[in-house]
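Let us begin with a simple case.
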Amino acid sequence: MAFKAFLHVLSAPAAVLLLSGALAGSACAGPVRTRIVSLNLCTDELLLELADPSHILGLSPLATDCAESVRCELAQTYPVQRPDGENLVATHPDLVLDGTWHRSTVPIVMDALHVPFVQLPSIASLADIPVQIRTVAQAIGEDARGADMIRVFEARLESLHPANPEKILTATVVGANLAGEEGGLISDLLKRAGFRLSPSERSDGTIAMETLIAHPPDLLVTGMISEGASLAENVVHHPALQGRFTGMHRLALPGRLTMCGTPETLDALEALIAAHDRLTAAEPLP
């Protein structure tokens, strides 16, 4: 999986319109959809939380992968189908949920069958999560469930703060699904937890190993999806990093927590805040 696969910028006009409508709210609930197919991990996770189980016709193959999905156990009780347009012809859904990266046959088939096709972009901050919850809830006709889910999410977010917010520490992120540039989800999580990203010497937001060792941040955050799945994950096992960042100066975040925008993303924020609290109560990294 590419290092920044889930931090791309929304460009599909249809998705822009959809999210604009979600931000504005809806005066009335849409029809309840009873044959819903999700072709994307992130829509899988929201659908499992918001839809009536009998209305879920199929999920993406990643839904049952516990390394990537926060609801993998629940997803194992549902059918999994290929995320392509040909399969949708046989399935006959009344709504299809997907991300903005998909196979070219999907929108063609949805247009031909006159089936609503809802696309969600990857989130760039925690503020995007309620928007996406509302978007999916309105699309499937479960506005009340969406509103309840948003209330719980926002209440928990409001309660999460570092003990010493005035002490801003530095952090560097390496590994799968963690992009080290300003303006992304991990940047938002770090800022809320009392960290700032270490300055990068490269345009893609990465930092050289030599620089990382010579000028270490207060915290090294590593992201893992599955062992040996990519070079981005292998780098976290480099002996130089293993020896330089130990104990409270290193935090491993499961990739599934930052893969999509779900209420479980707050588990990552909570872990970062706990790391900040430990560091601000101890001696700085020499």
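The second case is a distinct protein. As before, the sequence precedes its structure tokens.
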Amino acid sequence: MKYWRVFFAFVLALAVLFHPLSAEAANKRVAGKRAVVNKDFSNKTLIASEFTKLNLENSNFSNSDLRGAVFNGSTLAGANLHGADLSDGIAYLVDFKGADLSDANLTEAMMLYSTFDDVDITGADFTNAVLDGFQIKKLCAVASGVNSKTGVSTRKSLECD
């Protein structure tokens, strides 16, 4: 992992922690230790929404606009994020086990301490995303396809080669 990515992740984390939320984002905050399993968020505009400590297992975020959204300490196991735009978002301490991230746009996303076991990342774009090194290796082992919106190959976006 390049050092500038770690620095970028640190600065981004500080900005999120100490920056006041806009009125729009404050209205989209969902937090708590509750389950929101099987919820349908598909095709929604959820820009800068916050999902903190939620069980979003098997929820559907397909084709949703999640730019700048924050998933913190949440479970997205089995979730459908096919075609979702999570660019500039944060997924910190998120369990993506079995999730569908195919054709998702994850550019510039900070995804430290998240796990990606048995995920479908066909065509996902991770350009300049910040991930743990061992997770990148795991994702490179299954990376394939080209993102339909950005035109970037998954392998290239993860810098596998």
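Strands lie at 29-31, 50-52, 70-72, 90-92. The longest strand covers residues 29-31.
Keep these points in mind for the review questions at the end of the chapter.
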